[in-house]
Amino acid sequence: MGTGALYPEERPIRTTTVSTFWMERHEVTNRQFAQFVTETGYVTDAERPVDPDLFGVPLEDIPPEMLEPGSAVFSSPSFASRDYRDWWQYLPGASWRKPYGPEGSPAQANEPVVHLTLADMLAYAEWKGGRLPTEAEWEFAARDEGQYRNLQPDPDEANTWQGMFPLENKALDGHDRIAPVGCFEPNSQGLYDMIGNVWEMTADYYTPGRDADAVENPKGPLVGQARDPLNPGFASRVMKGGSFLCAPNYCQRYRPAARQGRDPGMGTSNVGFRLVFDNFPG
Fold first, then answer.
1. Looking at residue 149, what is its pLDDT?
2. What is the mean pLDDT of residues 255-273?
3. For residue 217, which of 139, 128, 131 has the smallest C-alpha distance?
């Protein structure tokens, strides 16, 4: 588990053990999530008005559109920039139903569901009788000596960004945004899209480093130890696998050992999840 190849948060390299578990072959799709919503009447956080107390500033200082139901959507800028605030926009009306905003196309049935908060994912998991994987379980499932050995996946291996991010995506893999699940060959364990397409949330809290001594079913730090320089003030969770936005010149996190923190209370257009089960979900 881990690597010393690229980013410091991937260290240390260590051997771990995980107990037996079952993992879904692909990310949870819009079709699957729609069934959950139909049967339960669930309303996601992106479809609810925003609580102004989350901003920690007087109400009059909050732009009105930031209080409308919505979520964060990626939009390629017209100029070169390394500042993520130039690529991401809080878009009222964006949700799992309309992943690219109210004027965009509706969610496609076989694409991974996005724009969910951790609470939304956990609600679905409880309904389904599963849970989010630990980081160790996820990384074990993604390890495959026959795939993903290059720092840049081949276009026929995964849905990632080909070109100069964030200006030009050549889409050599056939997809300039989210791809339907199962478009690429599975790994040796029969799992699809373990890298690229959308990030996948895990159950573990995030810190920039990992405990070298936690080798038996490791489950990350305690909530009070969670620390994420990119999301200060939030107990971020670990997400794995990278997304269609990962590119060689910016974010080479489409590798099994790669990891990043995620604000659990904010959905985006490039983060999804899949479930694991302790017993066969029959």
1. 53
2. 93
3. 139
Per-residue tokens: 94: 């964006």
What's the distance, Cα to Cα, between the start and end of the chain in Å?
30
Mean pLDDT throughout 236-256?
A: 91
pLDDT band at 135 (very low <50, low <70, confident <90, very high): very high
Compute the distance between CA of residue 3 and CA of residue 7 in angstroms, rounded to an integer. Answer: 8
CA distance 139 to 267: 23
Distance CA 85, CA 117 (A): 20
> Is the CATH number 1.50.10.10 carried by domain 1-41+113-276?
no
* Sequence-distant (≥ 6) Cβ neighbours of residue 152 within 8 angstroms: 160, 248, 252
| pTM: predicted TM-score of the whole model, two decimal places | 0.93
Domain boundaries, the chain: 1-41+113-276
What values do phi and psi take at 84, rounded to 5? -60, -20
**CA proximity to 270, closest of 71, 76, 114, 75:** 114
- Residues 90, 66 contacting (CB under 8 angstroms): yes
